[in-house]
């Protein structure tokens, strides 16, 4: 990938220890076991991310296992090791047949949650039927569920989310369709879960639902993002969604950060979303995570 220069303006607006809470790695050293589209088949390595990371101004990272790797999380564990467990965490994909020992190894490697990518459920590595069982399995580890679901799926499975023990994170602004916007019935559900401490939400990938695109810096998504900030600023994290497999070429980092600056409006809110909230959700700064890393190294 072409190197992108760090932006002084971006660095000025982004606080120290800022976290990019949503990236993917597609490393050709690890075989993709599910069919890949042309965009996600393009190799993007940790070294590639290191080149673009200064443009975001972040120093902490959360790597999310892409669906292309099925339930093989090696690519994510390897990325955490390269970036350092003091600066990186991961979100895995698993199924109910995983053993307790395998879960412990993922935890030691920096995994802090599991993802259900069911927005497009065809050929998905997981299913809605697995959610409750796996929620109970990972609850003992203090993990959360990460949900890339449609707004309609959020409504349909709201009773399921009400009864699971774990906290859960909605990907990509909860994917409310822009034409329905805040009038969609999923909004009230997500608000309830956010304000009662059951859920979190990622301010990420506005281009997935924007109708005006990068030419308008995705500003038609501003109302939605600002609404979530007004409702629960203490339950939000931000992610770049690098390498932007749904949009090639991907958006310029300056346009992504410009959106965050518009949404937040002030330095204290940016710090909350970029530093304080991800530290709580993913355990950055927790010395027990470093002990886990040492244990993994000794195995």
Automatic annotation (TrEMBL):
All copies of domain Amidohydrolase-related, residue ranges: 19-284
Domain of life per record: Bacteria
Per the record's keyword annotation, is Nuclease included, yes or no?
no
Keyword Nucleotide-binding applies: no
Q: Which keywords label this protein?
A: Plasmid
Q: Which residues cross the membrane?
A: none
PANTHER family in alphabetical order: BARREL METAL-DEPENDENT HYDROLASE, PUTATIVE (AFU_ORTHOLOGUE AFUA_1G16240)-RELATED (PTHR35563:SF2)
Q: What is this protein called?
A: Amidohydrolase family protein
Which source organism does the UniProt entry give? Paraburkholderia sprentiae WSM5005
**Organism taxonomic ancestry:** Bacteria, Pseudomonadati, Pseudomonadota, Betaproteobacteria, Burkholderiales
